[in-house]
Amino acid sequence: MSQTRVKAPLNSRSVAELNGLSRAVNQAFGVAGKTPLVNCGPCGRFAKVFRECWAERFGQWLNFVFVMTPDKRDCVHILVRLPDGNYFDGGLGVVSGELLKVEWFNAPIIEQTIYDLSEFEMRAHGLSAIHPDCPKYNDAVARHLVRQSLGTMEDAFNPRYK
Questions:
Q1: What CA–CA distance (Å, rounded) separates 78 from 5?
Q2: How far apart are CA 75 and CA 70, in angstroms?
Q3: Main-chain dihedrals φ then ψ at residue 109, nearest 5 degrees
Q4: CA-CA-CA-CA torsion for 11, 137, 126, 41, nearest 10 degrees?
Q5: What is the pLDDT, as a whole number, of residue 56?
Q6: Does residue 45 belong to any structural domain of this protein?
Q7: Distance between CA atoms of residues 5 and 136, nearest Å
Q8: How many domains does the chain have?
């Protein structure tokens, strides 16, 4: 599968579909105030599911992105970088690099350009961890929601599908 980045932006229908996926994720797993619970622990597991489903649907692997503490010793959030350079956050939807910096107060961001499962597991604090702040999270439900959403996307980068 390709690691090549597509330079064209996602078309507007695809962005709307991904933002709809985020709403479905929040409905399934919950929100506390304005904070999506999927972003309170299982964000790494969700990012992994999303990455696998994207590769399955589009034949292209996405890179993981780690939001780090200022000293870069601990990962506080995991999401994926979309082929056009924007990001997909399970709880927030499609976000630009600028919005990502605002959301995370200019925290250091590390992109994993070569997949390394052991590094990913370490930064995700384990893939089998229980997340008390998001008790409803379930990989099978996440996979179903992601596949359902990506399955409706025609050609994510074709501008004729606006």
A1: 20
A2: 10
A3: -120, 125
A4: 80
A5: 93
A6: yes
A7: 34
A8: 1
Domain that holds residue 24: 12-127+134-151
Residue 162 lies in a domain: no
What would the two tokens of residue 119 be? 């590094």
pLDDT tens digits, 17-70: 999 999 999 999 999 999 999 999 999 999 999 999 999 998 899 999 999 999
Q: Tell me: the pLDDT tens digits for 117-160? A: 999 999 998 888 889 999 999 999 999 999 999 998 866 655 55
Residue 66 counted as domain residue? yes
In this prediction, residue 155 carries a pLDDT of 62
List the helix and strand counts (H, then E) for the chain. 5, 7
As to burial, measured by CB atoms within 10 angstroms (0-12 exposed, 13-18 middle, 19+ buried), residue 12 is exposed
| CA pair distance 83, 10, nearest whole angstrom | 8
Cα-based torsion angle of the residue sequence 6, 11, 13, 14 in order, rounded to the nearest 10 degrees: 20
Give domain status of residue 17, yes or no.
yes
